[in-house]
Structure formats: C-alpha cells, structure tokens
Amino acid sequence: MQDTVVALVQANTTVGALKGNTETIVRMARDAARAGASIIVFPELALSGYPPEDLILKKHFLNDCMESLDRLAGEVPQDRVVIVGTPHLVDGKTCNAAAIFHGGKRVAFYHKIALPNYGVFDEKRVFAPGDKALVLDLGAVRIGIHICEDSWMPSETPCTALAPMALDAVINLSASPYHRGKLGQRESALAKTAALVKAPLLYCNLVGGQDELVFDGASFAIGPDGKLLARARQFEEEILYVKLPVGKSEAGRNESQPAAVEVVNLPTLGKNQAEISNPWKTSVAPVLDDLAEVYSALKLGLRDYVIKNGFRKVVVALSGGIDSALVATLAADALGSRRVEGVTMPSQFSSKETLSDAVLIARHLGIDCRTVPIQNLQDTYLAELSPLWAGRAPDITEENLQARIRGNIVMALSNKFGWLVLTTGNKSELATGYCTLYGDMVGGFAVIKDVPKTLVFELARWRNRQSKSPIIPPSTIERPPSAELRPDQKDTDSLPPYELLDPILERYIERDWGPDEIIADGFDPAVVRRVARMVDRNEYKRRQGAPGIKITPKAFGRDRRMPITNLYGDNPEPTPEQEREP
Asked: For 201, how many CA atoms within 13 A lie in the half-sphere containing its CB?
C-alpha cells in the first residue's frame, strides 16, 4: 500500500488580507498537490492572519472570512484533503478553527480547545473554546487534528482525548511566535504529546512578521520516540513534505469512540500520479546558531512591517554609535540599500570620530546620507526659551532639547517623503528610561526595542564576520557608548556598565524576580534597587514608544503590561511636598 505524503505549508500571510491570503493558500496548495501531497496543511488562522485581535469582534469581518472559505472550497485541489486555519462563526460564537476541505466543499471544522491567555496571547478575549477533539478517518490513514496550544499540555483534554484513538499521526496547525530558545521548547513539548498518542506529530507553523511578533516557521515532524523526522527552514516560506506510512493504526482501532471525539470519515486518499511534477524528500533543516537566529528574526520582522504597511523607504538617524549602525545594517539587509536613507544631525558635542563613523557606515551600506547640523536650531530654541527659565543653570533640559530637535527633523523627512522612521533605542535604554521622550524615541518602528545593549554588541560583531570586510566600523563597536549631549558624556555616567546592567534587567523583567532574589544571586544591593526603580518609574515613556520586534521571552508592550502609576516595592509613596522629576 502506498505511503501518504503530508505537506506542511509554512506560509507568510497578513492579518486582514483575506483576498491575498486566499490567493496564497490556493497557489501553495496547488504546488503541494503537484508535488504529490495527499494531505495539505496550512498554519493556524492562515486565512485571517495571526493574531487578528479585535477584528474577530467585527461580524462583517467574520462574514468576509466565511465568504473566503467558500472560495477556497472551489479553488483548492478537490481530490486532496486541505486543512486551513480560520476564524469560524457558528451558533453565535466565534472559534479558532481548522477548516477541512475535500471534494470541493468544507467537510468539517475543528475548534481549538486550549485557548492561551498569557504573554502575547489574548485568545479568550475573542474566541470561544471548542469542546470536541477531531479525528479524520481517511480509510487507511487516521489523523487527529490540533491547533497550537492543544498539543502543548499532554495531560489536558485535547491530548488525552486523542490518546486512545489509534492514530497514524496528529497534525497541529500553529502560529507560534519566536523568541530566543523557542524552537527547542516546541520540539521538547510536542515530543511528549507524540509519545502520549503513540504517533508522529506533524507541526505546521506560520512564518513572517506581524507588528511586534515574528513567526519563525521551522515546521517539523517528530516521532513518538522523540526522533525528529523532518524540519523546515527558519524564517522562510517553505513546503515541508512528510511521508506517512498508511494502515499502521488499523489493527488498534475499535468501533467505539469517546464522546469527546468526533470522527469524520472521508474517502480513501488517492494520488493523480500524472500531476506529480516535482520529486520531494523528507529533510531536516539545520537550526541557525543563536546570533544568526536573532538577526534573522529582526530582519524578517523589519522587512514584513515595512512591506505589509506599504512604506517605500525607511530613514535612520545615524549618530556614529553602535545602535544606529546596527539598525541601518539590518534595514539594508532586509530591504536593500535603495530603500534606506540615513541622516546625521551633529551638534557642538558630536565628535569628529562619531560623525566620521556615521558617514562610513552609510558608505559601506551604499545608502544615501544627508547631514543636517542642529547647532543653529538649538541656538534659536535657547534664545526663545531661556527667558522662561532665567537664572536657572543648564541641566537635562538642554540635553533633551537636542534629541527633540533631531526628532523633529526625522519626522519632517518622514512627512515630506513618506519614509518610515526607524528608532534606534535598545532594550537596556528603554528599560531604564535612558532615552528622550519625543526625541530619540520618535519614530514608527523600534527595530531593536527588545535587544539588550550587550546583545547589540554581539550582533554587530557577528554581522561583521559575515562579510569579507567589516560593515560596521570597528571604532563604532570599540568606542564607549555616549549620547553626546554634553561634553565628554558616557552612558556609564548615568547607568551601571551594560555587562552588569543587562543581567539585572534580564532577571527583573524577563524572569520577574524581585530585588531580593536578584541580590541573593550575587548582585550589589544598591545597584539592583536603583535599576529596579529606574525600570518601574519609566513605564510612562515605554507606553508612548513605537512598536518593536519581540526576540526575548518577555518584551515590553504585549508581553509585559505594568501600571504607570505604581507605588509598589522600592517606589516610595510621595508626600505632598515631593515632586517627580520628568
């Protein structure tokens, strides 16, 4: 008896682009059929894009999704089983569903049972859970269907309901966003489910960028013994083909079935051999190393944000520092040099070295770069404003004014030419508030918002190793970081050294450790408490910042939602006489 070929279609779809997503699904389903696949699987909510958020609350959107499903039924290969993730409005409730097509019609829906509601996930807000597992009985092949979270907890109902069903495989439609270490977590968790159901688990993941999230693909098949059978590439569209022996489960079947399981019987699958034009083979794509993986995630997230939102070009303020150099390099790698513009905005405090490095990085990347000195603008601002604070000594006001003038300039370029401004602040700066609201925080997309400063250095060095000669000037990497807003300024004037700061931030933000726990881990008590206060008291800045790409387990924004008015812990409750420094 012939083996069955399952195609896991790792597609890049866009939230709300129902026409475009439908066309992508039809095109890739036909490609998979021509290659000989009998079962063709698309990711979770591939039709609507993921996450659709409150679009799901709009009835007209759901009606349009259902119309798109009607179109799919007539256009996907009718002699194959095609499984597509979609919203499904039924009996007054909306479910996160898998639509199963065969013979020119929808033959079944599976409704996701386990709805995640943590971190970046908020599915219980918009979806109702399903209450039955689904098994497709295709004659010689019996397949269980899961959607993402359903497979993550072997002891819960979605998994235990399928365990006694004598399956040939479980197919999981997923939209699992990337963070460092996520792929290993997925493979480990789903191996346990494969062992429970005593069948291979075939995992089809979304790929592409959606606002803050990046979906890394890396779809895979894993056996009940934990052996990896196949894996697609990371961060690229691809169709992964998996050969599934047929008839293996027949001896273990019985006529009865649990009440919590729906079994849908379909005709025995066949293949039109005349259609098969491309040979396929099961493959295990290698995993990128850590820095290559992070860089790829940032590049894909940036590219898709720019392209899916219709921007022709981006602009980066080049300071000669490492953050702007890395952002400009990512932009050129993601979009091509012709779609990236640079601008330098030197002041009296800008050194010749940083200005030279800003021009040099632009030359290395082949991007156009304008120079707009800000000294005359600052002098004008001070001449107009100084009478308002006569007798007061210069302070942080004058420093922030420079950053805000630069913010005005890049936004003027954005308005005039329609360019997207890429901000250059990193996670360490945003965590501690070492950034200027309406200044260097101004922009439309914060590429390295979730990248700690120490990782910025690592990524810059890694990127230089990928070229015959360094793209980012070595002097940019080696120079002590400085905002250059006053004479001889260094970041360490205001912050602990980054090699000390970042491990504290990682424990406080990503692991949710309290100051006492961090201190017990060997860190200086005064430094820890100071850093914690800085993080807590700068939530108001982060709340007003641009969206940026998530690459850590807990990013600011969707992942970490903290109150702005927050007097817990080391934030002393103010007396009426106290004022807060802005």
From this structure: 34
Fold of 4-267: Nitrilase/N-carbamoyl-D-aminoacid amidohydrolase (3.60.110)
Between the CA of residue 132 and those of 106, 112, 122, what are the distances in Å?
Answer: 18, 9, 21
User: Phi-psi region for residue 444, left (φ > 0), alpha (ψ -120 to 50) or beta?
Assistant: alpha
**Alpha-carbon distances, residue 336 vs 206, 313, 523, 537 (angstroms):** 24, 10, 43, 39
Domain range summary for the chain, segments of one domain joined by +: 4-267, 290-493, 496-537
If you write DSSP's letter for every residue of 532-552 in order, what string do you get?
HHHHHHTHHHHHTSPPB---S
Of the listed ranges 82-86, 283-287, 320-324, the least confidently predicted one is 283-287
Of 146-155, 467-476, 479-488, 489-498, give the lowest mean pLDDT range. Answer: 479-488
**Which helix or strand (DSSP H or E) is residue 86 part of?**
strand 81-90
Name the residue among 459, 470, 437, 207 with its Cα closest to residue 327. 459
Q: With the C-alpha atoms ordered 409, 413, 416, 420, is the resulting torsion angle positive or negative?
A: negative
Structure tokens at 560: 């970490």
The CA angle 317-327-478, to the nearest 5 degrees, is 90
Q: What is the pLDDT of residue 352?
A: 81
Tokens 């050969």 found at: 243
Q: Is residue 257 classed as helix, strand or coil in its secondary structure? A: coil
Half-sphere exposure for 489 (CA within 13 Å, toward CB): 15
Residues near 448 by beta carbon (within 8 Å), at least 6 away in sequence: 298, 323, 326, 327, 330, 424, 425, 426, 427, 456, 548, 549
Phi first, then psi: what are they for 359, rounded to 5°? -65, -35
Of 114, 41, 36, 102, nearest to 74 by C-alpha is 102
Q: How far apart are CA 416 and CA 471, in angstroms?
A: 29
The first and second tokens of residue 447, run together, are: 């590429």
Query: Distance (Å, rounded) from C-alpha 193 to C-alpha 187?
Result: 10
Of 91, 85, 81, nearest to 110 (Cα)? 85
Q: CA-CA distance, 331 to 303, in Å (whole number)?
A: 8
- State both tokens at 522: 């060997």
Q: Which residues of 509-548 are buried (b: 16+ CB within 10 A; e: fewer)?
A: bbeebebeebbeeebeeebbbbbbbbbbbbbebbeebbbb
Residues marked active site are found at 44, 112, 148
β 368-371/81-90 pair status: unpaired
Q: Is 133 helix (H, G, I), strand (E, B) or coil?
A: strand
CATH class (in words) of the domain with range 290-493: alpha beta
Split at pLDDT 50, 70, 90, the class of 576 is very low
Element (H, E) at 305: helix 290-308
* CA angle, residues 507, 179, 451, in degrees to nearest 5: 60
Under 8 Å between Cβ of 132 and 262:
yes
State the pTM of this model: 0.92
